[in-house]
Structures are given as structure tokens and as C-alpha cells.
Amino acid sequence: MIANGVLVLNRNWTAIHVTSVQRAITLLVQDLAQVVDDNYRTYDFNSWRELSAYVDTEGNQFIHSPSFRMVIPEVILLTSYHRVPPRAVKFNRRNIYIRDGYKCQYCGRKPPREELTIDHVVPRSRGGRSEWENVVLACQSCNAKKGNRLLQDTPMQLPRAPKKPNWISIVRHTLKAQSRPAWQRYVDMAYWNVDLEE
């Protein structure tokens, strides 16, 4: 099984996003990035490929070509990137589940994932939009109880108003889920340096 992604660092060593293995290799081949090892040493494509020939196969993932094998990097460092791209969080089902901690936001229970639904706080039939501030996870029971009503027309309450999560909370969850220790130091640094939203 190929690794799920490669952590990308800006040239000032701050984590900026996670990319696919294919994209990371492309950046290496184009000399736009270097591999970072556990001791903060950097390698260009050729030196990483040469080093990979001496790496034990146990505990490592490789990509193979007809003439060589190469360890899949876990972290790459961009060589000439200057500005930080916007750290946008995609509005999708996965990120809603992460933001809400896989729990019903009305009753606080954590049922099996297949028993959770996405509820519109202001129902779409009443003009509610599909956006961060209007959707929450709800168990099937709470979703049925609320139905097509506005929250103030029910005895139900939300513990907090839904809002767009910040980028670093999503990355930290991804890090935990993938158990990628090589990412930890960079994601921790990004966590402490990220701007707080009002």
C-alpha cells in the first residue's frame, strides 16, 4: 500500500500542506523540492535515489522503476517558494466529521459513523445554505426529532455555533489518523505559529 501523502514544507520549514506521492516526486524531479530526513538533512532527487539503494525494505515504502527503487519521502522542503498559499479547509463530508469529532452535536453521543447524518441547522427548505456555519453532525434520532424545524422551535440546543475549522486542526487530525511521527514536529510548529481567528 502506497503512503497516503507527503508533508510539504515551505522553504522556511513551516508546514503548508499535504500532497500526493506522485506530486512530491514530480517536485523532486523538477528540482523544486528536496527530501527531508529525520535528522533535518536534505536530499535532491539523485542523492535520495542513491541513498535509497542502501535502505532496508523493512518498514519503508518504495516506488520502483525499471532501473532503481526509491524510498517514498514523508516530508519534502520546497526550494524556491516564497509566499504561503491560503490554508483553505475544503467544505466536504470528511472535514465536517473531523470538526464535529464524529459526535452528534445535539445529544453528544458518538454512534457508529453510518448512523451519523449532516443536518442543516436552518433547513434548506427554509433558505438554509450548505456552508460551515449551517451544518452539523446529527445522529439519525436527533435529525428525525428536529425534522424541518428551526432550532428555536425545538427543545434542542447546540453546545456551540458551527463554524469553519482552521487548517491546522484538520492537519493535526490527519496526522493522528495516519500516525506519521515524521510530520509531528512540523505540524506542532505550525500549530503554535498559526494566526488565531476572531
Number of helices: 6
**Secondary-structure class:** alpha+beta
The average pLDDT is: 83
Cα distance spanning the termini = 41 Å
Beta-strand residue fraction = 15-25%
Could you estimate the helical fraction of the residues in percent? 25-40%
Main sheet: strand order: 2-1-7-3-4
> What gyration radius follows from the Cα positions, in whole Å?
21 Å
Query: Ranges with pLDDT <50 over ≥5 residues?
Result: 191-198
Task: Please state the overall shape, judged from the principal axes of the Cα atoms.
Answer: elongated
Report the sheet with the most strands, covering strand number, pairing sense and barrel closure. Answer: 5 strands, mixed
Secondary-structure element sequence? EEHEEHEEEHEEHHH
Structural domains: how many: 2
By DSSP, the count of extended strands is 9
Outline the structure in words.
The chain is an alpha+beta fold. The protein has two domains: 6-87 and 173-193, no CATH class; 93-153, Orthogonal Bundle (DNA Binding (I), subunit A), CATH 1.10.30. Helix content is 28%, strand content 18%. The strands form three sheets. It has a five-stranded mixed β-sheet, sandwiched between helices. Helix 5 packs antiparallel against helix 6. It is elongated and about 65 Å long. Mean pLDDT is 83; it is low at 191-198.
